[in-house]
Amino acid sequence: MLNRRNFLTAAVGVAATAGLAACAKEDGSSAGSSSGGSKTITLGFSQVGSESGWRTANTDSVKSAAKEAGYKLQFSDAQQKQENQISAIRSFIAQKVDVIAFSPVVVTGWDAVLKEAQAAKIPVVLTDRSVESDESLFVALVGSDFTDEGRRAAKILEKVLEKAGHKGKVKIAQLEGTTGAAPAIERAKGFKEVMDAEHKDDWEIVVSQTGDFTRAGGKQVMAAFLQSNPDIDVLFAHNDDMGLGAIQAIEAAGKKPGKDILIVTVDGVKDGFIAMSEGKINAIVECNPLLGPQLMEVVKTVHDGGKVERWIKTEESDFMQDQAKDALPTRKY
Question: Is the dihedral of CA 321, 325, 330, 332 positive or negative?
């Protein structure tokens, strides 16, 4: 898998600037013609699904950016199934699109279809998530540093615990993302790096399970957590939607989210900020979904034979509870 911290610039790159991308459902509509009489670029884009508010914002960003750029977008929603995504990529190859982009459901199992795209001389761009594959099979990744997001979550938890006046041992429950997905693997890794290095004696993850990045999954798994571990101090959720589902389970158990159980989540969707402004989430580590403009810039450069950076990172921030009300009006997703 790409080492997202050491992803070096390769001979395929120009830095792109701007926002993010989006997708869902099969959609082969034209986004219009490019200016100057040049051939319209056709982009095949395969999205993971529509499992969360973050993903919906990501899809909307891709679609709107493609339309603004004047590209013809062939869009496919994988509904969180790798076989659907592989089928969509093969369909894009058969249609002879100019560039293929996709946000992979999981990190493994892509070599065969990526080799097919390479044989067809169609460049491939990864968005949001990385893969474990030969790096020569794709030209760039547009997305976040998930391992660093995990580290940031651990560091902001230090501030949350200090503000709450918590002393002594900290029992942590972890709601993981989809099993095998890059953000789930890397956020857990980054969080544990900080925990093992700086809190080996006082922090313990007492229970950890996937909630599949969904609100319903977060609610169901958190309810089970509270049955087996009623004395949890902290919840670390790999995305806001699972955290929002967990809040429902915590309240159903007669506890106060944000007080009885301190909560740190990742993403920064508007619903997460609303919950944080209500005191139910203590801190959010932002993962910016607005990748569309960056992706379209990369697509144009690659199509025109130019060079792009191997890893084009998104700009992100961290937010504590006391920042939520002021930040909420500025949230775009």
Answer: positive
What span, in angstroms and rounded, lies between the C-alpha atoms of 247 and 243? 6
Tokens of residue 66, six digits: 């493609």
Please check whether residue 60 is in contact with residue 73, taking contact to mean a CB–CB distance below 8 angstroms.
no
d(CA 44, CA 102): 8
Q: pLDDT tens digits, residue range 254-281?
A: 999 999 999 999 999 999 999 999 999 9
Determine phi and psi for 232, rounding to 5 degrees. -60, 135
The residue to which tokens 């914002």 are assigned: 57
pTM, to two decimals:
0.83
Tens of pLDDT along 275-323?
999 999 999 999 999 999 999 999 999 999 999 999 999 889 999 999 9
Residue-by-residue DSSP string for 240-288: HHHHHHHHHHHHHTT--BTTTBEEEEEE--HHHHHHHHTTS--EEEE--
The per-residue pLDDT for range 3-13, each reduced to its tens digit, is 443 343 333 33
Query: Bigger pLDDT: 31 or 285?
Result: 285
Strand arrangement, sheet containing 42-47: 72-77, 42-47, 99-102, 124-127, 140-143, 311-313
In angstroms, the CA 171 to CA 228 distance is 13
Instruction: Name, in order, each residue with C-beta under 8 angstroms of 324's C-beta and a sequence gap of 6 or more.
Output: 273, 276, 277, 281
Closest CA to 322 of 291, 278, 290: 278
Q: How many CB atoms lie within 10 A of CB 202?
A: 13
Using the 8-state DSSP alphabet, how is residue 322 labeled? Answer: G
User: β-strands 318-320, 283-286: how paired?
Assistant: antiparallel
Q: Is 231 helix (H, G, I), strand (E, B) or coil?
A: coil
Q: CA 237, CA 215: separation in Å to the nearest integer?
A: 11
The token pair that represents 44 in the structure block: 């095949």
Identify whether the C-beta of residue 323 lies closer than 8 Å to the C-beta of residue 273: no
Summarised one tens digit per residue, pLDDT across range 82-131 is 999 999 999 999 999 999 999 999 999 999 999 999 999 999 999 999 99
Amino acid (one-letter) located at 276: M
